[in-house]
């Protein structure tokens, strides 16, 4: 019997050479094909396996569930300024009302009044709050962000990312992730 494994099935958790995930949110995962390619190119060590086996005419292998890089990759010192990272910094919440729905971003000091598109001036905002604030200063409309915008560190984003675990966590990954799991005595 032949089992077809889709690219989305059996992803491998990717750890740095120090056995920490390359990123927490999004969680550093590779497709099973990319993981196997890295194994054959001798770029990773297999740390744990799935029960699923793949076959070729001359070869058989259990799919890796956790791999670690052989060479340490230095994490970025400063996270990229992206919409996703703004949302992650702000914990996917509107900084005006706390809503998690219909998020966009807002310039605290509007661009029309000289505000820049920077970490220190952009916050996550739901569409209704963003429309209500429009191009006014916070003091003009009495809408102040719950948290002043700031340039986060990679550590800040990783800590926030841990609060949003992915929908699927394979049991072989748990020793390498720092979610709120109960430890055995």
UniProtKB/TrEMBL annotation:
<dbReference type="GO" id="GO:0008270">
    <property type="term" value="F:zinc ion binding"/>
</dbReference>
<dbReference type="GO" id="GO:0003676">
    <property type="term" value="F:nucleic acid binding"/>
</dbReference>
<dbReference type="InterPro" id="IPR003615">
    <property type="entry name" value="HNH_nuc"/>
</dbReference>
<protein>
    <submittedName>
        <fullName>MFS transporter</fullName>
    </submittedName>
</protein>
<dbReference type="InterPro" id="IPR002711">
    <property type="entry name" value="HNH"/>
</dbReference>
<dbReference type="InterPro" id="IPR052892">
    <property type="entry name" value="NA-targeting_endonuclease"/>
</dbReference>
<dbReference type="GO" id="GO:0004519">
    <property type="term" value="F:endonuclease activity"/>
</dbReference>
<feature type="domain" description="HNH nuclease">
    <location>
        <begin position="81"/>
        <end position="131"/>
    </location>
</feature>
<dbReference type="Pfam" id="PF01844">
    <property type="entry name" value="HNH"/>
</dbReference>
